[in-house]
Amino acid sequence: MSLPISENESGTSFSWWRSLRTTLEMIKFEHSVFALPFALIGALLAARGWPSGRQLFWIVVAMVAARSAAMSFNRLIDRHLDAQNPRTANRALPAGALSVSFVTWFALVASAMLIFAAYQLNPLSFRLSPLALGILFVYSYTKRFTILSHIVLGFCLGIAPAAAWIAIRGSLSPNILLLTGAVTLWTAGFDILYACQDVDFDRRSGLHSVPQRWGIRRALQASTALHFLMVLLLLWLAWVERMGWVTLAGIGVAILLLIYEHRLVKPTDLSRLNAAFFNINGWIGILLLLFWGADILLYSGL
């Protein structure tokens, strides 16, 4: 069976690469930055210093492959809904710029890359990799029946630091689950913000979200509450892991960015939502990695 390229083009090398580029654009490949910093924090905490270069390499491969598999699968499952939503109708699949078969192959290859990367790390990572894929794929269906879809999405990112911990130690510690919880709440909080722009479409289509159920004003309050709990979990983790002032400074910076994020989005004005969602949350992950990483390396004497 040959690898399909696109619906209207022959199987040339040029069209294959163009389809691949379009797929990477469709899944926002650059947004791997959301989960990757927390995976690296988990790896640094587990190693209490620098993991080996080999471990870091395969952790990064696993994280990028996991997100690529999850996002491409989500676009496949949601392609008919995307075609009906004016905000998403120009995405590659509903617009006809990509074929279903090409994106299916992409998702399969990314899934295989995750499993192979896990195999390169340790036996427990390898055994758990199908479970991780299952969690990532289940999310795509949840908004069809529950407003807890935001939490499920959060958990999809939240397992990243726990997976990285397992990759380093070959076992799981309750401490790293605090970071899993923090990332889960952080992601759910900003996903609720993002869902505010689709509230009318969700109501018409029978999809479930916090804004659709409770309205935008209460959804923004729920997002704020989740981010408050996220900060508490980060402080708890800093305490049990005996982190220093650099980590606390990083949490302080994250708090300021979260406050700014919530000031950008108002019930009557969602015009700056994309800035809040993409830019600020990307910086939160990167800055937390820099501060926590610096603290861990200082503590380890490296």
Structural overview:
The protein is built from 14 helices and no strands. The protein has 302 residues and is an all-alpha fold. The chain has one domain: Orthogonal Bundle (Tetracycline Repressor, domain 2), CATH 1.10.357.140. The longest helix has 28 residues, at 273-300. The radius of gyration is 20 Å and the shape is globular. Mean pLDDT is 89; it is low at 5-12.
Topology:
Layout: H1 13-26, H2 36-47, H3 53-77, H4 79-84, H5 92-95, H6 100-121, H7 123-142, H8 149-169, H9 174-195, H10 199-205, H11 210-214, H12 216-240, H13 245-264, H14 273-300
Helix pairs in contact: 2-3, 2-8, 2-14, 3-6, 3-7, 6-7, 7-8, 8-9, 9-12, 9-14, 12-13, 13-14
Main β-sheet description: none
* Coarse shape: globular
Number of strands: 0
At the fourth level of CATH, the homologous superfamily is UbiA prenyltransferase
CATH fold call: Tetracycline Repressor, domain 2
Count of discrete structural domains: 1
Work out the helicity level: over 70%
Summarize the structure.
This protein has helices spanning 13-26, 36-47, 53-77, 79-84, 92-95, 100-121, 123-142, 149-169, 174-195, 199-205, 210-214, 216-240, 245-264, 273-300.
Main attributes of the structure:
302 residues, mainly alpha, Tetracycline Repressor, domain 2, globular
